[in-house]
């Protein structure tokens, strides 16, 4: 399937999901939902891979996902706590990572790292 079509379908799905009626407290539209480890790791893997491709991009790898949620906010906002390995230093650090995905935009993935003993790092990449 071509990439633009896939993105268009993704954008449409977001609209449809956002438009679903509220079926009670467990399904608050726009509320955060728990994200399983597999999906969190896939999401984070993808962002880290895209960032590593960029000039001066960090070369991070996922070691362990501790917790994750996602929320529909003009796209999808992922919040993930994970240990990541910094490829340059070969040591793991614990980070709160936010990935705000708007894949239909150029540089539509905004990735914010809040890692222990480090300043906040905000980066962006495309789909
Ligand atoms: C994430 O990437 C690692 C390699 O860095 C791989 O071993 C793992 O299976 C990937 N996880 C998912 C859920 O795709």
TrEMBL record:
Q: Which residues form the signal peptide?
A: 1-19
Cross-referenced InterPro entries: Cystatin-like (IPR053128), Cystatin_dom (IPR000010), Cystatin_sf (IPR046350), Prot_inh_cystat_CS (IPR018073)
Could you name the domain of life of the organism this protein comes from? Answer: Eukaryota
The protein's UniProt keywords, in alphabetical order, are: Signal
MF GO annotations? cysteine-type endopeptidase inhibitor activity
Xref: Pfam families: Cystatin
Among CDD domains, the record links this protein to:
CY (cd00042)
Q: Which SUPFAM superfamilies match?
A: Cystatin/monellin
> Where in the numbering of this chain does the Cystatin domain appear?
27-116
UniProt family annotation: Belongs to the cystatin family.
Q: What is this protein called?
A: Sarcocystatin-A
Q: Which organism is it from?
A: Musca domestica
Lineage at the top is: Eukaryota, Metazoa, Ecdysozoa, Arthropoda, Hexapoda
